[in-house]
Design a protein that fits this description.
Helices cover 32% and strands 21% of the residues. The protein has 505 residues and is α/β, with parallel strands linked by helices. It folds into two domains: 284 residues, Alkaline Phosphatase, subunit A, CATH 3.40.720; 132 residues, no CATH class. The strands form six sheets. It has a ten-stranded mixed sheet with strand order 9-8-7-6-10-1-11-22-2-23, with helices on both faces. The protein has a six-stranded antiparallel sheet with strand order 14-15-16-19-17-18, with helices on both faces. Strand 15 and strand 16 form a beta hairpin. Helix 5 packs parallel to helix 8, helix 11 runs antiparallel to helix 12 and helix 13 packs antiparallel against helix 14. The chain binds zinc ion (2 copies). One zinc ion binds next to helix 11.
Length: 505
Amino acid sequence: MGKWPGIALLLTILLPAHAAWAEVPRPERLLLLVFDQMRPDYIDRFQLKHFQKLRAQATNYPNAIVGHLGAETVVSHLVLSTGRLPKDLPWMDEVLCDKAGTLGAANAFYATGALAPEQLLQLMRTLPKETLLPFQVKQRRPGFVAAVGEKDYATLVFGTPAADAVVSLHKSHGICTPDGIAVPRYIATSDRFTLECSNAYGTERSFYPIDGARFVPGDDPAHLGGDVWVTDVALQLMDHEDWSALFLTFGGIDKIGHLTGEADGPMPLDFEPKYHLEDALRTADAQLGRLLAELERRGLRDTTLVVVTADHGAQSDRRYLGMGRSGKAMAGHGAEGETLAPWLRHLREAGNVAATFQDSAIRVWLTDMAPVNVAAVLGALRAISGVTEIHALAQEDAGWRYRRVYAALAQEPAAFRSWAAAHSEALVGTMANPAGPTFIALLADGVGFDLLGDHGGAQEHVQRIPLMLLDPSRKPQTIRAFVGLSQVRDIILAALACGRAAGCP
Ligand SMILES: [Zn+2]
Ligand SMILES: [Zn+2]
């Protein structure tokens, strides 16, 4: 000691961070937070202080992207929970073509988000349980795993059949009550968790009216809804359970983002909503702060991995191709009598179309594959304003893939062209299986259907998402690689401590 005090002191000054971090073992609990429709640029644009603080302490992935199509809630939550791309999942989009006949007749089309919980479970049970993130987390640390969120199908799909409980909301007669799978009694029977679900808060005349306090806090301080409700449920679960993982999905930003279309800045609205995008973001940020403070209070900060991400981003649909109807159009069987946007009507009249789905990209399924029909529909698709690329499903020796059959990129800005060159082919490839759409038409920035703000396609603002891992055993760092949502499951499992599990690396 006596001889080299100066060196010892110097080492202490140089290495304090390393020494401190090395003493913290890998985290054993997981708090996985999905902010539905959150964009990474919102963090600084709106000065979201809890997101900023977490980003400064975390492993941050500034180039995280959705990495698949459709860039949709019902797809991305399952990608996150399985680590699989859509082509390797039971559904790939808001439209499900049930090739195998798992739900009934083979080749039938369904609106995925409208499937009954039992049907979604039935489809998810076709996946090996080892693929499910909740199962793998429990292997590492046996304990309670739950999914919580306002949006019922998102929460169920996020939790998968491997979660112990799924807690969401069911709306009936203007009232929302806790609903899901194995909802704990202290939630189900607590008056606090029942919400008023009818006040439109000034959005009656919009395409996507607010349904009371389901997605927003609302006016009743004793029954705050939306993301506050999700957080309050999570805090109750922390209180009552020996939990290993909580999968929380916050729907407030997505609701207001679709409603107001303010993703890329203010939009002219012909209604006066009580809530704007900034309000939804401040609410979400406050919930992140509450959850982190709660971990601190419980002494769990050093043993919990906190992951913050989103299921997709969003864009303002400034070149709007819709018809001002509420909700999204799942055209296909049963579409008779539906008022269609002129472009879509033209597409349907051009040929024999089995189903379409359109948001910030257009997907078209054909069952009549006669060359004359395929050519007619492709011709009509090319004529739609804002279409930049069309990719067609093809079976080749190496398997199913999409081949680009049309491109109109020359008039697009350079930034759009380089984004498309880097990502379009890989993104459409994530839907390449026999149930995939016959055509995927990608759209220019700011082009979309039905809602003022939307997602679903390959645009940069739709694809870029936040991804931050607050790992108490690691120093803050920045990883600049493009990472997609399908990789997040393995990143999480690598960060968690390995308990009694067989499958640990
Ligand atoms: Zn979503
Ligand atoms: Zn959405």
